[in-house]
Amino acid sequence: MRAALHLAILLLLPPLLPGIVNRVKAAFAGRRGPPVLQLYFDLWKLVRKGAVYSTATTWIFRAGPVVTVAALLVAGLLLPFGGGLPGPAAFAGDVVLFAYLLGAGRFATVLAALDTGSSFEGMGASREVTFAALAEPALFLSIAGLALARGTLSWTTMLSGQMPAWHSFGPAFAMLIGALFLVALAENSRIPFDDPNTHLELTMVHEVMVLDHSGPDFAFILYGASIKLFLLGAIVVRLALPFAASIPAHVALFLAGMIVFAVIVGVVESTFARLRMNRIPQILVAAGVFAALAMAVILIRVNG
Amino acid sequence: MTAMLAAMGILAAAAGSSALLARRRSWSLTVSAAGCIAAAAVAMPAALRVLLGGAMQTVSWTNPVTGSQALVLDPLAAWFLIPVLFISAACSVYGRGYLLSADGRVGTQAAALDVLVLSLMTVFLAGDALLFLAAWEVMTLSAFLLLTHEHARMEVRRAGMLYIVLTHAGTSCLLAMFAGIAAGAATLRFVAPHLPFATGTAAGLFALGAIGFGCKAGAWPLHVWLPAAHPVAPSHVSALLSGVVIKTGIYGLLRASLLIGPLPMACGAALLGIGILSALLGVLAALAQHELKTLLAWHSIENIGIILIGVGLGSMALSAGRPAVAAIAFAGALLHVVNHALFKSLLFLSAGAVGKACHTLQIDRLGGVARAMPRTALSFVIGAAAICGLPPLNGFVSEFLVYMALLAACAAMPVTARAEAVLAFAALACVGGLAVACFAKACGAVFLGAPRSPQAAAAREAPRAMLGPMWVLALACAALGLAGPAIAGALERPVRQLGGVPLTDTSAREGLAATAILGGVLIAVAFALAALRRLLLRRQAVSASGTWACGYPATTPAMQYTAASFARPLIAVFRGVLFLERHDTRPAGAFPDAVALEEHCPDPVDRFVLEPALHHGGMALALVRRAQPTRVQSYVLAIFAALLALLWWRLG
């Protein structure tokens, strides 16, 4: 029953987040904006369309979106969505598998982009792997910090009932939230790392990698991107909401948290400009330093 | 043990007969490959039996000069023997197809391959220092013969010299180390010393072993020969060298630490530090390479670094009295030895097939090879995903164990060790990200897009004799990725031999089982989604068109993003450690004609340490050479004088 609810949330709710983000951005710009459910309409439209494939492409291009979505869905099985909804496939060490599943999805997307032989898509792929490699230490240091503070290696136990841990590691957890939020923005190619609304191929990161995808393939890509935003947001939200409650209240709290997360992403996108490309590594290293500081604080507290 | 002796006999016979058949190229190579396969078929069941619970086997005899000698098959030796036998069989079959498709003499190659496998077996089975060192030397020399196959080329000769000089420098450290151990144990046999060594002595012996074995393994900063030697060898030899020969360094290090006994914490910490440096600098240098096999060779240094992180952490955990952590760390290191052997040989064999088909391995002259060589492309992509540690393949399983060991060490070690474990954890994460970047570059620029040169456009799929071994290795990569619980069972005994306790830590075992299941789930979900995609497209129009280039219709293959541009942003971030060199001809005048830009990342150890050392050392040795006698008679006299002096010293 719980697993079914978890699966339903994982499969159905992610496309809601970009809709909320876009509404927030529209509100800041003084527009009405597209409907909150716009991404669902787009997906429905795309799966009923045919596809156009570049003559340069091989099976790798066709496999890319499928593998990406599969990896993200399995990664979603490892995360808890609220205290009463543990990850259905949680085990000690799932933190590492989660990170590498994101890596597998990225590898598939990047190879599919390179398969087209387009210089623009090569450019985007190059930026994607660069920023991801630099975001990796921040993610793993945050994982190590949480693992040490909570004495566990699973997202589910790491991100539930952490109220007492907040009392002893509060400042460290706050820094971890900052680091993980930056990782979430970078991994999902949001402002300040990348502008999802840009229309100039030369400046894009994620969007330019998927220029040649169409029809159901593009639907998979959009769906996968929304799942990724949902998953990384879920980690931040679960870490920031340490309250314990009954199951329905818990899930409601989590979903409310996700909506707030989307609103914050929208506010960030409306109020910040995107960074110059060569400044991005510095921000990612800063996220890593945040996580390392938090780790140091936790090491000292655990020993003391 | 009979099986092992029989396998060694088969290899010796195959080596001899393939040398005798040298004139008949096909026959010679067939006999050589048959020898490897037969040896694997005979020896592998015996090794598996010892690994899975059979009794340790020993044959010993007394040598009138040096005393007791032995061949010992214990779980640790069995663990290393299995990949050697498996991969050498695959590589010998591939090598037959590879060498027959070119002209030239193959007798030396055929015989030396069998001799190499024989010496590798002896290295792992040796039960005393003398036999070990003798086999070690035969292994070094036969590998030298194999890798200098195309010795007409200048860079092959340089690589061969570098290899033989540096490995012999390493061997001299090993001689000193084994002499020290033998002095403590009062025998040349590999048995634990009666009295544990004093801390300082143990650390000194371990340092000698780390230099000697680290040189063979290619640990930073002793790796210099590796990126020079591995790319110039025939591809199946590169696969053997990178896949199994460098693992003898890891084996030696583990065997030596068993012999030396309890080590101070600093030894393990130093090894962990070397592991972190090797992994990070190896992958960064790989990212900057322009040649496919050199890139793969640098990744061997990276993976040796990952293995050394496991070994060093295990040693630290043993010193700190945390055998449960040590068990996970050793399990990760041992499993990565096997996994790296599989995917690295798979990658080298696939690269060799591309090299044969396109007559170049310069990454930026290739492209679009996947259209002509879809099967080779598939096996390279499988190898690439495995080496990046992506689930559900085997590389993930061993890296997972190393991560688990590091996390366990964060929770249960003295505070300095914790800090180093955290550092290693973050470094390993960064290495993972960089490896994905590097293999995205390699796969993308070589196999995807459009051909960048006429040679790449004229590629043809490799013959079945070469594809077969590649598929066997690819299947092994996939199977080991999904066989978590079975692997935990097989690791039980070698881990207990190294760490004293079995892999009882439930979290690691549970993790292995869970990753295996979720790997299966991942594959199932991917196939389900692929079926869904096919269903969605069944009724719809699917058409082909050119790649979207912002409306510009006249794109050429030269306009594709190159591998160099692909890696450039990361190289710019890490230019502090990569020593980027730039040579450019800038446009001058109103109508510039020649414009050029070249960027290289020379190996700093080679450029700033080894080259000056060889240069100045050569000048110093030139003085000695002047004093050298030029006649054979003078040599005989010198030997006679030395003998007299020794006799006088011992007996006088």
Ordered list of secondary-structure elements with their pairings:
The complex is a heterodimer of chains A (304) and B (652).
Chain A: H1 2-12, H2 16-29, H3 38-47, E1 51-54, H4 59-76, H5 94-115, H6 119-150, H7 155-158, H8 163-187, H9 206-209, H10 215-240, H11 247-271, H12 280-303
Helix pairs in contact in A: 2-11, 3-10, 4-5, 4-10, 5-6, 6-8, 6-12, 8-10, 8-12, 10-11
Chain B: H1 2-20, H2 25-51, E1 57-63, E2 67-73, H3 75-100, H4 107-125, H5 129-147, H6 154-185, H7 199-217, H8 225-232, H9 235-245, H10 247-260, H11 265-287, H12 292-319, H13 323-358, H14 369-372, H15 374-387, H16 394-411, H17 415-447, H18 454-457, H19 464-481, H20 484-499, H21 506-538, E3 542-545, H22 563-573, H23 575-578, E4 581-585, E5 596-600, H24 604-626, H25 632-651
Antiparallel strand pairs in B: 1-2, 4-5
Helix pairs in contact in B: 1-2, 1-4, 2-3, 2-4, 3-4, 3-9, 3-13, 3-19, 3-20, 4-5, 5-6, 5-9, 6-7, 6-8, 7-10, 8-9, 8-12, 9-13, 11-12, 11-17, 12-13, 12-16, 12-17, 13-15, 13-16, 13-19, 13-20, 15-17, 15-19, 16-17, 16-19, 16-21, 17-22, 20-21
What key phrases describe this protein's structure?
heterodimer; A: 304 residues; mainly alpha; 71% helix; globular; B: 652 residues; two-stranded antiparallel sheet; 4% strand
Q: What would a concise description of this structure say?
A:
The complex is a heterodimer of chains A (304) and B (652). Chain A is mainly α and 304 residues long.
